[in-house]
Amino acid sequence: MRTRVSIPISCLIFAMAIQVLLLPVSSDASDLQVGYYKSVGTCPEAELLVKSVVNRFVRKDPGLGAGLIRMFFHDCFVRGCDASVLLDQSASNPDPEKNAIPNNPSLRGFEVIDAAKDILEKACPGKVSCADIIAFAARDAANILGGICYDIPSGRYDGMVSKNSEALSSLPAPSLNLDQLKAAFLAVGLSTTDLVTLSGAHSIGRSHCSSFTSRLYPTIDRTMDQTFGMSLRTKCPANASTDGVVPQDSVTPDNLDGQYYKNVKSLEALFFSDWSLLTSSETRKLVDDYSTTPGLFESSFGQSMVNMGNIGVLNKNNGEIRRSSCRAVNNYY
Known about the structure:
globular
């Protein structure tokens, strides 16, 4: 497994680009700031503590890094970036998001967030939100797996509601066409550029066969390379008793890079939603640019992650900072 650590000059360039281009997607994000916990003095080492935990887990298992980036996406697209995806079943949330089909059993990284929360509660109890921990962890995972560096504003508060049904209705499915994808992103204030850029996270992690077998049977879909489809059939047989898993990018499976876009162009990406990026001149140009211009995807990915982190941000008036555990709201204790 090849991983890349951040290069200081690259980090500086990417961070400067983010600061110049940063435009809040939601007015609720106006209170967010880079280095929030250091600025307000409540937990100056918060980001370093999270980074140390993420490094420890992801260096051992790169799949957890992919899971943390996906967790950030799945959290922000449902009720905003409020850590609602972390809540366990309880009397107040009897059927939470993490039980929804898009999350269970495929969403990974909960143990990383738990470990980070434990360390932060020892260092500065009740000061760092779980929503910010997810944002920091996703940022750090992108750095480990792709050498991608960006500053993520923080100061989010945690939500108190989590509903299975909202995950089902809010998270874009892998079967969506381009118009449906654009509508889903627009609904949360994200652009078509964000759509194509964030899809690049499909260069890491694994997918269950059930997410794409409709493209393999009864015949291999014309939108998929036939040889690639035949290879997938060996890993995902029809009517299998178990739902197998395959890498989302078989070329560089542990690297967050532009290979995904090359796969899309050669019709060797898993999902129909991946292929749909080729169905308009605007999105196809972005796919071409990301697949051929070194460093363009990496710098753009950081900006789109920041944009996504601005969705539906809560503040002290409508949220809380969970104590002790990210898995339950405070009134549970």
